[in-house]
Amino acid sequence: MYVRMYDDLKRGQGDNLTIGILLCSETDEDIARYSVLHDNDRLFMSKYLTYLPTKEQLKAEIERQKEIFSMQHPVLQENGE
């Protein structure tokens, strides 16, 4: 769900602004980046660092999800897709 859509449909009146976590895979190196609404200059990453997973934890989760996907879609692996 998109961050703005989540804010419109799900965020409670007293809740803090929503952030998004993007999990990306580029070539052989997996990267994780944090995303905030671009027009919100009142929101700073440092406010959330104690609540967000580390980059290493996010990388580990990406690898775990890749393994799960491979087990669920063995035909794609065999065909090299």
TrEMBL record:
Domain YhcG PDDEXK nuclease stretches: 1-62
Database matches in InterPro entries: PD-DEXK-like_domain, YhcG_C
Any Pfam family the entry gives: YhcG_C
PANTHER family (alphabetical): NUCLEASE YHCG-RELATED, UNCHARACTERIZED PROTEIN YHCG-RELATED
The name this protein goes by in its record: Uncharacterized protein DUF1016
Source organism per UniProt: Murimonas intestini
